[in-house]
Amino acid sequence: MYSARDPDDIDRFFRGLTEHAFHARLGIVDPPLVEYVSLLLVRFIRNDEIHALPGHASALLDDVTDMLSAVQQAPAEAAREEYRHIGDYTLFWSGLYPEALRRFQRPARQDHLLDYRAAGKKAYWIASTLEPADAADERDLLARLSHDYDLCVEGLAEVRRAWGE
């Protein structure tokens, strides 16, 4: 039985939408990548998760420029998670709500000249280079997120269309 309070239900919902969008609509069969994107959706259901940069619990940041500035001062292990978060943040907004980017990139904001896609690709790539040597699968996944960033944006746009149907 469906329960709006059961976290597994929302996880299954997003996993099903993501698998359908990537597999059936786009022909992308990459289970680790698709699972990562579906878990990103589950994590970002809560607004505070979207804007909370790991390692900066007290700061809720919504400018990627601020996030990039903060991550440059972090130790390597924390920087890895922060770069990953920047990739996730830009992927989420670019794929699901690209119309919101116009609001984020108003001239009064720091991100007004930032290319979210380029920043996201670079953040995932940097995170992949900071993964320890014994985390080859994680390094590979982050590198694929960087390389296939535009496909993931397209996949998230399909997820949005599917949940609207």
How does this model look, in words?
The protein has 165 residues and is an all-alpha fold. The chain has a domain at 46-159. 69% of the residues lie in helices and 0% in strands. It is built from 9 helices and no strands. 30% of the residues are buried.
Summarize the structure.
The chain has 165 residues and is an all-alpha fold. The protein has helices at residues 7-25, 31-43, 47-51, 64-71, 76-96, 100-104, 116-130, 136-147, 149-164.
Describe the secondary structure blueprint for this structure:
Layout: H1 7-25, H2 31-43, H3 47-51, H4 64-71, H5 76-96, H6 100-104, H7 116-130, H8 136-147, H9 149-164
Helix pairs in contact: 1-2, 1-9, 4-5, 5-7, 5-9, 7-8
Q: Please work out how many helical segments DSSP would assign.
A: 9
The strand count comes to: 0
Termini separation comes to: 22 Å
Written as H for each helix and E for each strand, in order along the chain, the element string is HHHHHHHHH
- Range of helix content: 55-70%
Regions with little confidence, pLDDT below 50 for 5+ residues: none
Average pLDDT, rounded to a whole number, is: 83
Largest sheet: none
Which class do the helix and strand fractions yield?
mainly alpha
Query: What integer value in Å does the Rg equal?
Result: 16 Å
**Percentage of residues in strands:** under 5%
Shape: globular
Features:
about 0% strand, about 160 residues, globular
